[in-house]
Amino acid sequence: MHKFLVRAASGIVYAAVIILAIIFGEWTIYALALAFAAIGVCELNNMSIGFSGKTLPIFILSTLCVLLFVSIFKFTPVLSLTWRWCLIGIWIILVCLYYLSCNKIRDVSLEEFTDGDYHKAPLFGVGYLGFPLALMTVSPIERLPLLIFVLLWINDSGAYIVGSLTGRHKLCPSVSPNKTWEGFIGGCALTLAGAFLLDRYCSGFFGMENIPLWMWMSTGVFTCVFGTLGDLLESKIKRFYGVKDSGHWIPGHGGILDRIDSFLIAFPMALFLLLLLN
What we know:
This protein has 278 residues and is mainly α. It has 10 helices and 2 strands. Strands 1-2 form a two-stranded antiparallel ribbon. The longest helix is centred in the C-terminal third of the chain and has 29 residues, at 213-241.
């Protein structure tokens, strides 16, 4: 019971932080994106090389690379061409310094991290964390990130309930043995129902009152499919490094990556869909 209460309380606080940050607008969304980026990169580094005095430069440089990338994305429209090139130049210098630092600590199991096909940092951090979170700060529909989070929470709840009750057929047992096709279908069904109700009663709140129902439903489908892929990708990363959770920032839930893994893939795809079809 104690574990359940801790998990529930931390989940409520986590959700409240996201909801309030996105509702308050542009600058709190930017702050939230920076926080997610910084913590997420540190979790990736900690899984791969561990934190120590020797690896501290890697943590600092890779974090600065991703934070600067998000900031460049955010402020490029209002910066002069000179400032844009200056910031890009600084980012390139940080990347070079990062790889120089990597070469100095090869004896702390960094080789797997830097030589893996998709586990390179900070370039992997930019692609995996920086790009989706940067898009979050410049979304033309300001509360679209909140909508995607809500749909993902609905999907997770439906998948857990249906999967627990009827799950028999494994979705991807080699990566995530607890996920089932029944849970996936149940999560999709509940998400589509949620998208329908949100369109009917909350479209104005999300700034999507002019979006037709079929686009809401399409967004729901994209969120389920790509959210599940995002979850599986992060599970594969954790399995690659042999860890259960990416971190311990949220008691009972794990790390930040454990909570935003689905969002990192689902949000860019949902945004692309809406921009393409609208």
